[in-house]
Structure formats: structure tokens, C-alpha cells
Amino acid sequence: MNVKQYIAARAAKELCHGDVVNLGIGIPTLVANYISPDVHVFLHSENGILGVGPTPEEAYVDPELVNAGKLPVTVLGGASFFNSADSFAMIRGGHVNVSILGVLQVDEAGRIANWAVPGKSVLGVGGAMDLLEGSKKVIVTTLHTNSQGESKLVEELTYPLTSERRVDMIITELAVFSVTDLGLELLETAPGVSLETVQQKTQASFRVSKLFNKNNEVTA
């Protein structure tokens, strides 16, 4: 299991039976492959699918069956298809229980930037703003640092803000944080990762929860 798969597997543990779940682009799409068979959720895609299944094997890819990120998907029995307007009405109407999003940055208040990089053209905003405002719970899945080794958990955002609404949880390959009224709270570290490592690689301030679980194990 590589680090992105580890993050996805850990995020899948946060899903509950009956949840309607939207998976964003990147690491979030991997979550579909790690949902427990005992947990029946309904995966939603902004382009108009409710009932998305795991990633298909190459031999079974249908080029006309894709998610909002244009990646091939499967659908489960009972899946439904609808237009984009209805899909966003579901989001804006508060019918999505959990959204799992990737980010460029997240600040110590739990606000995220994930739709634009200054100086680079933007092909489209996507659904992140709507998902942040309309979802009952938002989980961030991201690598802890960027390609330059800089923390993606920062004191203040330097990329354009996606929404003033803060997320509820942040999951990286190093740690899991809860976002509270008082800021970021460290819940657990990944297997083999020390608290000192998390402190060194996190620019944002955080406190350690009384429920802190060192070296949490994920099996998948």
C-alpha cells in the first residue's frame, strides 16, 4: 500500500452505513476501493451519478462511464443517472452527508484552497465550493507536504480561498487532525510516524488531543 492508498483507506474508515458521499479529484477517488463491505454508502459524482462503485479493471473500462474528474468508474446495482443541475441541487440542498476533497493548502482554522494557483489559468472552478457549503461533513485527504517539501498545512493560505466554511477532518500520510472551534487538533499519527515528525513537517499550529492515538493502524 503506497501513501496515497493509505490515506484513502484511512478516510474510508470515517464513512457510515447509509451515507451519501462525494469523492473529489485525486486521492479521494481512491476511497471507493477501500470501503468496507459491511458499510453500504452511496457515492455521488457531480456529473450526475449516484451509486458509483470501485475503480474498474482495465479490461472492463467503459469510456462513457466516468466521474467528474473524467476517470473511469463502475456503478453498483440500483445506481441512478441525472443531469448536472439535479446533481448540484442535491449538493446545495444538503443531501450529501460527507464530501472528501483534495487540497493545495489548508490553514490552521481549517479553511482550504483547492481550486486555483496564482499565475496559472483556471479551466473551471469545479464543485468544491458547492460541496464545502452544502455537505454536512467535509474530510480533506492530502499529502502532508508539497513537491518542494513545504507543509500543506499552513498558518495562512497563500492560494485563493475556496470557501470560508472550514473542513471537519484532515487526513495525511503522517497524521489525522480534527478541526475544532479552537483550531487543529491532532488525533493520531500514522504507523511509524512520531509526534516530533508531525510537528517538524506542519507549519500550522495544532494541539494534541486527549484522545491522541500514536501509530494508528489501517488494514485494507
UniProtKB/TrEMBL annotation:
<dbReference type="InterPro" id="IPR012791">
    <property type="entry name" value="3-oxoacid_CoA-transf_B"/>
</dbReference>
<dbReference type="InterPro" id="IPR037171">
    <property type="entry name" value="NagB/RpiA_transferase-like"/>
</dbReference>
<dbReference type="InterPro" id="IPR004164">
    <property type="entry name" value="CoA_transf_AS"/>
</dbReference>
<dbReference type="GO" id="GO:0008260">
    <property type="term" value="F:succinyl-CoA:3-oxo-acid CoA-transferase activity"/>
</dbReference>
<comment type="similarity">
    <text>Belongs to the 3-oxoacid CoA-transferase subunit B family.</text>
</comment>
<keyword id="KW-0808">Transferase</keyword>
<dbReference type="InterPro" id="IPR004165">
    <property type="entry name" value="CoA_trans_fam_I"/>
</dbReference>
<protein>
    <submittedName>
        <fullName>3-oxoacid CoA-transferase</fullName>
        <ecNumber>2.8.3.5</ecNumber>
    </submittedName>
</protein>
<dbReference type="Pfam" id="PF01144">
    <property type="entry name" value="CoA_trans"/>
</dbReference>
